[in-house]
Amino acid sequence: MVEHGKKYNQVAALVEKGKAYSPQEACELIKKVARAKFDETVELHLRMGLDPRNSAQQVRGVALLPHGLGKKVRVLVFAQGEAEKVAQAAGADYVGGDDLIKKIEEGWLEFDTAIAVPEMMSKVGKLGKVLGRRGLMPNPKSGTVVPMQDLARVIQDARKGRVEYKLDRTAIIHVPIGKASFDSKMLYENLAALMEAVVRAKPQGAKGQYIKSAYLTTTMGPSIKLDVAAATSLTAS
């Protein structure tokens, strides 16, 4: 059993054991249990009633958080020619083709999200092992492989707070929704946008209860159980 310190136990006592909090209550309480000296990340953890081994029960998508994630997102775009000009004009931090691929192969990974035009994927594919395990590989399912005409919009979305959610091998989805320094209304609205996206992405092959449990947690603090029915009824305003 993990031994927690005095400060952790003090804030953990604020969370009533066994209680399922309403989304609004949880967003207010999560700020009180953030105990670290740094600005902790607030995450949503969902235990799904899905089989990760079943291709008909996969969940993957993106959500736009109205208040972002509280940090500058460094955007890299794999593009050449006219598409490269479009990406640069849209404000991408890094744009290129073979030069960027080589740089990444040599170990450089100073970016937070990667986008590519379809024409580049035959070359970008060789980075699968490097980018895939870090969740940075461009993928059509996550909306990060897009035609040139959509580049500007996708880059702007990434800047605003575009987050990707995906069912992992343990049937859990865990996604950041902001920082402990956000006010509770901002966290609530980000949570609502994410929950709406996940509910909308329910696969046709899903059986039984789609979302079994939901928790909010911070980097160093205790988790707070959410009322699943209330959470799944949230919609972005």
Question: Could you tell me the mean pLDDT?
Answer: 93
CATH top level class name of the largest domain: Alpha Beta
- Return the domain count: 2
Largest sheet, order of strands side by side?
A: 7-1-8-9
Task: Report the span from N to C terminus.
Answer: 42 Å
pLDDT below 50 for ≥5 consecutive residues: which ranges? none
Instruction: Based on Cα principal axes, name the global outline.
Output: globular
Radius of gyration: 19 Å
Total DSSP E strands: 9
The CATH topology assignment of the largest domain is Ribulose 1,5 Bisphosphate Carboxylase/Oxygenase
Query: Can you count the helices?
Result: 9
Share of residues in strands: 15-25%
Structural class: alpha/beta
Helicity, in percent? 25-40%
In CATH, the architecture of the largest domain is: 2-Layer Sandwich
How would you name the CATH homologous superfamily of the largest domain? Ribosomal protein L1/L10, rRNA-binding domain
Spell out the helices and strands N to C: HHEEEHEHEHHHEEHEEH
Give the biggest sheet.
Answer: 4 strands, antiparallel
